[in-house]
Amino acid sequence: MRNRIEIYDTTLRDGTQGEAINFSVADKLQIATMLDELGVDFIEGGWPGSNPRDVAFFEEARSLKLSRARVAAFGATRRRGLSCAQDPSIQALISAGTPVVTIFGKTWELHVQDALRISPKDNLDLIEDSVRYLSERADLVIYDAEHFFDGYRANQEYAIDTLRAAVAGGAQRIVLCDTNGGSLPDEVTDATRVVAEQIEVPLGIHCHNDGELAVANTLAAVTAGVTHVQGTINGYGERCGNANLCSVIPNLELKLGKEVIGRERLGRLRETASLVSEIANLSLQSSAAFVGDSAFAHKGGVHVAAVERNPRTYEHIPPESVGNRRRVLVSDLSGRGNLVAKARELNIDLNSEQAVLQELKRLEHAGFEFEAAEASFELLVNRVHNSSEPYFELISFRVIDQHQGSEMPMSEATVKIRVGDHEEHSAASGNGPVNALDRALHRGLAKFYPSLEKVHLVDYKVRVLQSPLSGSASLVRVLITSSDGTTKWATVGVSANIVEASWRALVDSVEYKLMKDGVSPIGASVEEADKKPALV
Ligand SMILES: [Zn+2]
Q: pLDDT for 422-443, tens place per residue?
């Protein structure tokens, strides 16, 4: 198994050091299960010595049924002046009861002298002693050499001596860390080669992304001989983040021909990236390599035509291999080719291309943009093709904002709609006008179309546009993303009025959901309107 590379995920520990990341114990358990399904070898769950939440996680993690991954607890070498038996954070590692324990120690003399304030020799003793104590009590001990590359640059011999101390203590993996994230790939290659000649224990790599090189440095280390790779999903982590496993894994598997999680599990990559981002409450970057929405999106007409003939012309890997998909972007720049390709991608029957193209151009001229709002595009095609009855008609809506004293402002919306012959009047409050309007609309429609009850807003974006018609009045374009718990879709609305633009995007969101569910509009007959709608 010379080509086998172990994946050590630290999303739940180093990833949570990222500025906007906060996981509850339940979140962490859910992510751990997903990581196991993805096929990683190790899941670093947290630092039990540093916070009670991580202690709770390890307690609960014992009952997780993981098929492949082993859970690791993370901590530091013992404090000077304390024995391992006296050191509370070493004891917390033992109490976590994980099969794997990872500890980090100092490699760089600068840190030994200025942070630990001990002699270089004492540091070596402390590393060996801590690793030995843990090795006698855990199945496997991984040693993270903090600031390895900086330490190596400052004093190569001492840096390697710290690794030897860990090996002497019984460490079964020695991980070279680019803690400050400033190393260059060539430096990583050279240092790793030297270490590989002198250390017999399997080597690992742990990179940070401060020079935007965490993935490149990780691959460089693998090429130089490491067989254990650490990183996080979506590259979450302190400062600029950690090595992004969503890029590292496919590069190892598809480009370097390594055996990592296997081709079949690689197909789960995009889903994992997207679920973890959802739990983190951060949107997955559209331009993220391999897993982002734009990773296989083609806009230029020439590119689209070529990709239609042979995808390899503009795609470095087949999108399906990482669970992503090819997308064709339609805009007023695009010609017939993009439109046809897009329709094929969305499985839309396009029998009046010219009319659709004309409508598309008209709307884009008015400020609409469909590249990020595929649901609205599908509705557009549907409206051009079918003159079917609407699901409902708006009679009127009204939104009131109230701001009293120091209280948070509140909004109230009333919506009057016609569904078939029935006139429905609903009202709701919310923390803002769009929220109130969204709730009032759903409340009004839910009794006719029950499947809408599950639909909620997950993202809302506003952009101010310069009106193409007048220099002074500006338009706003609202892009909303909705979800019913299983799928997500995006719709767009444009108006000079932000509430009106939001309303249009909300209406598209509702209609799209009903269209996708195959729900028939409630017709204009009193008996029909009072019945429960037929779900197809
Ligand atoms: Zn780190």
A: 999 999 999 899 999 999 999 9
